[in-house]
Structure formats: structure tokens, C-alpha cells
Amino acid sequence: MTSPFPGMDPYLEAYWGDVHTSLALYARDDINPQLPGDLVARVEEYLAVETDESDAVSGYYPDVQIAEPRRKAARKKASARGASTLTATEPVVIDIRQEPQTRRSVRILEKTGGKVITAIEFLSLANKVGAGGRRAYEEKQNDFIASGVSLVEIDLLREGRYVLYPDAAKVPPECRGPYRICVVRGWRRGRAELYPLSLREKLPTIRIPLRKTDPGDVLLDLQLLMERCYVNGRYAETIDYRIDPLPPLASPDAAWADKLLKKHGFR
């Protein structure tokens, strides 16, 4: 069963970890057959880690993560201090920080040398919420643009602040919807290509730039990717459309969505 929404399903934002991962994988799979023989698309994964000193975020590329259980570590420390006549009262230990968020993006690379040609970013809340996360993402944006890498930003989350590369004040009204897509070609850094998005319409098929010397762009059908995420993730069996999505839809989209869901028998 497909989503009752014609384009982006706002209820999927609550499951963004799974959806985000699937989008990156499906985009890689759709892009690779379209690439010239000397290019390849890869999914990049790294952890966003906030430091203790500030809310700054650093990126780490883990191979294998090995963690020692807390209780075992505590026993080792006690043994190292030697025997004692006192017995400590055991505290109740709780986790007060979430696990580092894993971000995934797609890179189009030259097979020889691994030079990055195009970066495709499916934005997550780690990019949009919190000064540290936004600052880290903006630094990455600037690094890509300064290096002549083409940047494709796909923001399908209503929550969080605007973080796309173009200044928000320069975005025309028709491109200020709840979802946003921006493409900056590496050889044309002074111009951005924006795609108008509406909750009430299908997601677009967008152009993914390669090199200036390549004969054409790669096409990426975002609606097809999202439908694949919905079906393969079995969200029709999971989502309760009787309640409002999080974050709630703004009026008049909320009234439109209510009418749509009633029409399809979900309410």
C-alpha cells in the first residue's frame, strides 16, 4: 500500500532515521547506472558528536565501535584502588545523552583518486536544530563550494531552521514551502537552482550535476524514492493517521490533510 499523500508524507518525519538511511541507499542505486564509466556513487556515513566544552559538532568516520560495559569498567577501577573496609551504595545509573547521530549522504566520486564531484545531502535534524549542528553543516557547505564540488541539498523536514546554502532572503516565495531542494553547480557557485515543493504535489525529479565537461545531468526521481521508502518500510502498517503528525501541520495544510485522509478512509 502506498501513502495517502501525493508527495511527501509528513508522518514519515517521525521515522526519519530509517527513512533518511533508505533515501541515501536508494538514491545511490538509482544514480550509479546513469554515471559515466569513470564515476561512482557511494553512501558516506559519519557520526555527529557534540563536545563537552561547547555545542560544537565534530564529524567522525568509525570503522568499528567497541564499548566496555559500565559495570565492568567500574569493577576494574575499584580493583585498581585495592581493598577497602567501606562499601559504597550503588547508584541508579541513567543515560542522560543520546547516542551520537549517524548522518548519511551520497557522494559521486572519480573512481581513480576518489575526487568528490557531487555531494548529495538529505538533511537531518542534526543539521537544522542546535547551533553546533547548524554551524558544522554550514562549514561543510562552504568547504564543498570552495572546493568546486557541486552540492545538492534535499530538505524534507519541516522542523528546524533554514540551513540551505543560498541566503534565505533571496529565496523566492514559491520556493518557501515546508520542504526545500537546492542545487549549486561547482563551476557556477554564484547561482542556485531551487525546486518549488508543496505538500499537496508529487516530489519532483531533480537534476544531479556531474562535471562541467560531462554531456548531461543525472536524473533523480524523489517521488519514486519516497514511495520505495514507504512500501519497503511497511509504514502503512505502522502509521496511525487518526492523530496529527509531529510537528503538526500548519493551516490550511492541516485542513487539507484531514480531508484527504478521510477521503482515503484513514480517519
List the helices and strands and how they pair.
Layout lengths: L15 H16 L7 E12 L6 E4 L9 H12 L19 E10 L5 E7 L2 H4 L2 H16 L3 E6 L24 E5 L8 E3 L9 E4 L9 E4 H11 L20 H11 L4
Parallel strand pairs: 4-5
Antiparallel strand pairs: 1-2, 1-3, 3-4, 5-6, 6-7, 8-9
Helix pairs in contact: 1-5
Structural class category:
alpha+beta
CATH topology: tt1808, chain A
**Major sheet size, sense and barrel closure:** 7 strands, mixed
Q: What is the CATH-assigned architecture?
A: Alpha-Beta Complex
Helix percent band: 25-40%
Rg over C-alpha atoms, rounded to the nearest angstrom: 22 Å
Which terms summarize this structure?
single chain, tt1808, chain A, 7-stranded mixed sheet, 267 residues, 6 helices, alpha+beta
Describe it.
With 267 residues, the chain is α+β, with helices and mostly antiparallel strands. It has six helices and nine strands, in the order H-E-E-H-E-E-H-H-E-E-E-E-E-H-H. It has one domain (10-59, 100-263): tt1808, chain A (Alpha-Beta Complex), CATH 3.90.1570. It has helices spanning 16-31, 70-81, 125-128, 131-146, 222-232, 253-263, and strands at residues 39-50, 57-60, 101-110, 116-122, 150-155, 180-184, 193-195, 205-208, 218-221. The chain has a seven-stranded mixed β-sheet, sandwiched between helices. The chain has a two-stranded antiparallel sheet with strand order 8-9. Helix 1 (16-31) crosses helix 5. Residues 48-80 and 95-99 have low confidence and may be disordered.
